[in-house]
């Protein structure tokens, strides 16, 4: 599993590639701990390149989500493939996290001429 972090519009976009399983969940945990430790209050997990999600990965996401909520932060998930989304629905995670089905859904237009920004609500 590889994790890439970039900042945009005051949010951290964390792109995860590969398998998120028992062997790699610690790496995801460390990456998210670093992002949140820098004071980031908005985190978007981009899963478009993630091919698998185990219960270990779910535990990491849920723990970080709960920690951010306590600090009045926000976390959303984006672009899970059909298999990863199925895991989310079976575990009930789709009722906890905002989940956007594509990166295009994540961004909203700001006032004219000001570009786009990331939204953290109204996900399906």
UniProtKB/TrEMBL annotation:
Source organism superkingdom: Archaea
InterPro entries: Anti-sigma_ant, STAS_dom, STAS_dom_sf
Pfam families: STAS
Domain STAS: 1-110
Record-level Gene Ontology MF annotations: anti-sigma factor antagonist activity
Stated family: Belongs to the anti-sigma-factor antagonist family.
Name of the protein: STAS domain-containing protein
